[in-house]
């Protein structure tokens, strides 16, 4: 359809280039010149000294990372969607495609079942014809309490969904809604109902006892699958249809969304490919049952915060001018419950909110794993009509058999699943990898970031968890970098230069460890390349609704990661490739129990007490070395003439690291609470610092 008067007046979505584009481009040009000058200087004054090589390498890495980063600023666009124009353009609710929602969970201890239930409930209550929404829960933990929780949730949903509609609730996760200060006067009863359910489930989690009165023989049969030898890593498929939209109605007689629990078969001898495997199993199960043309993927730590989110996605999918190769619409990850200044930099504003705007102007944002609406066709790679009015299949016995068959752990053998179909295997960042491969295959994507955010989730709230998460990502990215799908060789060729640069920026993530570690241990004159990044970085951060404190914490975490999870990820990846160890998906902890700990988190105090982690050893070592170097530098500057002139930048650099390490010194010396640095870590890092000083002394006296 051409741009008629009508479509111009009633757009489904708009897209405008960022007004500051030319400014950023000019800055990029100037910075490029400066970078080249520094590199030129380094190469000309290259001496065969031990100190110069790491510095040259560091500058090269900084220059490359900086260059890759420019691709995110080449063509930034801002999009808006207008769901209210759907009916005005004659696209009425009964014509909307149906929607399959996938919710993943994997471990009831790290991901409490009530959190998963809240995610599912928030999706069941979308502003969308209820008969067209089907929620599938993938339980990789194979946990009976999770199923029990969902049996409860199915009953509660019959009240919750009509309540949301009637009262116009915005946060459709009950937990978030009831936690908010002002609730609707009619909510007393339903809140009590929710509390009862929560208490039951939490009690079942603690005691392992059965709580729910089962609905019928069906559910009894399902529970009998949990035999004595049923374990998380070794069990048959369990599928339970808890609600069927063709049969079940809510308390006021409207159709209910379907709710289906799936725990795919697992056997120790067959690789299950973590979340990507779970999503592929759900893709197939849903294809046998409801086969909706649109699929929404959600992690169990994300809730819907804008009931119109699916309609916003439709604004793109149903636009008659939409590109036929539009694979997905990505909503960014936003987080709640973080401390005011985000001490652990877990908001990841860059990767989740700022950078996708840049990719959106090229071929589209990367896939962030959650909050993403897919066209089923992009995953199956087979033709499928987008306007299926009625679902073409029913949830009946024969389909259930089929569903069991497609969740067998050996089903994928000899198929293209994970290779060229569905979510792709081979990297711990299956989201990044899948989006990247789809872009390479010619698909495009769209970024949709409405205000207020459509999906909000939980970020890790302690240092150890956040570094483990970052380490898993770094390993996953290295896996892509060193695969045949390398983002430069394969990516640039198959997508384009700028998109290849964007993806490379992430693929080389662990390489940050080279300059950061180098500059942490070898403070020299040339942070020149790194320093000018800061003011611009800050500016971009503030424009994306950040605060100065959050930015400062963010850059501090960048330095901390540079000496902890980035290098450790590289080492682990190296071992993996030598066949010494395998890669595992370390789940990010979501449970918040220890009161003292969450209290410290709320007050923005670093947490080192949880474990004696190798992360903390390297961090404490760096902190000690820089502190000593800084004081020695200051004292010598006072005592020795001319010292300060030649060593000025070095001392300033050390001072910068020292300021950043402030929480580490506090945790080492001053603090008495449970979050202070464990004595063992202190001793080991003190020893490491001594060794490094000794080596430095030997090298310099050679
Ligand atoms: O074997 C597994 C492992 C994980 N998951 C699920 O995957 C999701 C993400 O796991 P989480 O521990 O929360 O990881 P995060 O670091 O918070 O997740 C980020 O990074 C992941 C890739 O490493 C992406 O999948 C996520 O979408 C992205 O938010 C959760 O819902 C898990 O239940 C599974 O279903 N099966
Ligand atoms: Mn998560």
Automatic annotation (TrEMBL):
Cellular component aspect of the GO annotation: endomembrane system; membrane
Binding-site residues, UDP-alpha-D-glucose: 110-111, 140
Xref: Pfam families: Cellulose_synt
Annotated residues for binding of Mn(2+): 275, 299
Positions of transmembrane segments: 50-68, 506-534, 558-575, 615-635, 647-665, 685-700
Membrane topology: Multi-pass membrane protein
Keywords tagged on the record: Cell wall biogenesis/degradation, Glycosyltransferase, Membrane, Transferase, Transmembrane, Transmembrane helix
Signal peptide range: none
Biological processes per GO annotation: cell wall organization; cellulose biosynthetic process; plant-type cell wall organization or biogenesis
Subcellular location: Endomembrane system
GO molecular function, one term: cellulose synthase (UDP-forming) activity
InterPro entries to which the protein is assigned, alphabetical: Cellulose_synth, Nucleotide-diphossugar_trans
Active site per database record: 140, 431
Name of protein: Cellulose synthase-like protein G3
């Amino acid at each position: 359809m051409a741009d008629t008067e009508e479509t111009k007046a009633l757009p489904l979505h708009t897209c405008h280039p960022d007004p500051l584009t030319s400014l950023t481009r000019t800055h990029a040009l100037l910075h490029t010149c400066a970078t080249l000058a520094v590199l030129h200087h380094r190469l000309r004054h290259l001496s065969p000294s031990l100190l110069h090589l790491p510095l040259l390498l560091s500058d090269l890495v900084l220059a490359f990372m900086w260059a890759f980063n420019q691709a995110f600023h080449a063509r930034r666009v801002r999009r808006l969607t207008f769901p209210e124009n759907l009916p005005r353009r004659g696209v009425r609710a009964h014509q909307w495609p149906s929607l399959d929602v996938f919710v993943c969970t994997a471990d009831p201890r790290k991901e409490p079942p009530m959190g998963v239930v809240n995610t599912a409930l928030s999706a069941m209550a979308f502003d969308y014809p209820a008969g067209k929404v089907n929620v599938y829960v993938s339980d990789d933990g194979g946990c009976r309490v999770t199923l029990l929780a969902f049996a409860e949730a199915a009953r509660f949903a019959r009240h919750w969904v009509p309540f949301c509609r009637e009262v116009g609730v915005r946060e459709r996760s009950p937990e978030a809604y009831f936690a908010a200060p002002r609730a609707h006067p009619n909510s007393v009863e339903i809140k009590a109902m929710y509390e009862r359910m929560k208490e039951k489930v939490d009690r079942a989690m603690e005691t392992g006892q059965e709580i729910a009165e089962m609905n019928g023989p069906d559910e009894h049969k399902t529970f009998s699958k949990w035999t004595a030898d049923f374990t998380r890593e070794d069990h048959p498929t369990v599928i339970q249809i808890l609600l069927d939209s063709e049969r079940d109605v809510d308390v006021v007689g409207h159709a209910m969304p379907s709710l289906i629990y799936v725990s795919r078969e697992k056997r120790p001898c067959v690789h299950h490919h973590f979340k990507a495997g779970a999503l592929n199993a759900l893709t197939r199960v849903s294809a046998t049952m409801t086969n909706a043309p649109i699929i929404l993927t959600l992690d169990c730590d994300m809730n819907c915060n804008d009931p119109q989110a699916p309609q916003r996605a439709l604004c793109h999918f149903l636009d008659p001018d939409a590109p036929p190769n539009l694979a997905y619409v990505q909503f960014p990850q936003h987080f709640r419950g973080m401390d005011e200044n985000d001490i652990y930099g877990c908001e990841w504003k860059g990767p989740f909110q700022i950078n996708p705007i840049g990719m959106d102007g090229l071929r589209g944002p990367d896939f962030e794993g959650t909050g993403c609406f897919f066209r089923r066709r992009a995953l199956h790679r087979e033709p499928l009509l987008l306007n299926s009015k009625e679902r073409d299949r029913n949830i009946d016995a024969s389909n259930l058999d089929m569903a069991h068959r497609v969740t067998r752990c050996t089903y994928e053998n000899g198929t293209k699943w994970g290779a060229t179909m569905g979510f792709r295997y081979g990297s711990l960042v299956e989201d990044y990898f899948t989006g990247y491969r789809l872009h390479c295959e010619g698909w495009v994507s769209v970024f949709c970031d409405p205000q207020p955010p459509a999906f909000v989730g939980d970020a890790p709230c302690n240092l150890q968890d956040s570094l483990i998460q970052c380490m898993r990502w770094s390993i996953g990215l290295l896996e892509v970098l060193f695969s045949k799908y390398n983002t430069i060789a394969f990516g640039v060729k198959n997508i384009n230069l700028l998109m290849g640069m964007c993806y490379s920026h992430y693929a080389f993530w662990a390489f940050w460890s080279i300059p950061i570690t180098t500059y942490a241990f070898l403070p020299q004159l040339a942070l020149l390349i790194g320093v000018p990044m800061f003011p611009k970085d800050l500016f971009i951060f503030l424009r994306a609704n950040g605060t100065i404190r959050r930015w400062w914490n963010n850059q501090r975490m960048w330095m901390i990661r540079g000496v902890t999870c980035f290098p450790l990820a590289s080492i682990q990846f190296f071992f993996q490739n030598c066949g010494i160890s395998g890669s595992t998906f370390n789940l990010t902890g979501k449970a918040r129990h220890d009161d003292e700990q969450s209290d410290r988190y709320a007050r923005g105090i670093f947490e080192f007490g949880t474990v004696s982690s190798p992360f903390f050893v390297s961090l404490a070592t760096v902190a000690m070395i820089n502190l000593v170097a800084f004081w020695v530098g200051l004292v010598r500057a006072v005592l020795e003439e001319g010292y300060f002139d030649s060593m000025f930048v070095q001392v300033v650099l050390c001072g910068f690291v020292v300021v950043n390490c402030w929480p580490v010194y506090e945790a080492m010396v001053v603090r008495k609470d449970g979050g202070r640095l464990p004595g063992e870590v202190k001793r080991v890092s003190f020893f490491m610092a001594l060794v490094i000083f000794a080596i430095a002394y030997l090298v310099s006296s050679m």
